[in-house]
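Morning - zinc ion inputs below, output right after.
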Amino acid sequence: MEIPKFLTERYRNWKNNTFEEYKEIYITASRNLQKPIAVIITCCDSRILENTIFDGKIGDYFIHRNIANIIPSINDKQENIQTLSAIEYGLKVLKIPNLIILGHSNCGGIEYYHKKIKENKKVNNFEYIDKWVSCLSKIYSKIPGDLSEDQKLTFFEQENIKQSIRNLREYEFINKLINENKLNIIGLWYQINSGLIKFLDNNNSFTNLD
Ligand SMILES: [Zn+2]
């Protein structure tokens, strides 16, 4: 195994600078149980820097990433284990009061599923991804036909966030926490090229965050 240069260089830089500067905070964090302020479910996409966007310090966010930030339905029994185990730990053990679903523009997972359906499955067949993105099938038919391609993808990305929130309600322990006002669910959509973030408001529409 070869350790690439970027790894050692960047690590050394962090250890000698950031870690040294915040050493006491790291030591304190290691002594106490983590107490994050939010669970964040987001996409694996490398352009999503949730800790940068929301000024995350050590211990602030309990993060789970998957392709296209999907929260599978309770009926997707094969697919939901990993995401739900992260959520279960965050809510039951750490008792985190906020759960954020952070979707985004230019999502490769969303685009892949869209192309797959549109081009009648002529795009790549992947052993695992195809099964995973099949969780999106329920909402695909909701995309209005008269939108441009870009608008369709944005609609699909945002509808996926709405559906994920609906899916959360299917899990009894989550639904109970919501009903008891112990859990706040937040849907966010992030636009990479502008830095814009929209949140899902009480009318089930996306509104600018600031
Ligand atoms: Zn994505």
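Note: The mean pLDDT is 96.

O.
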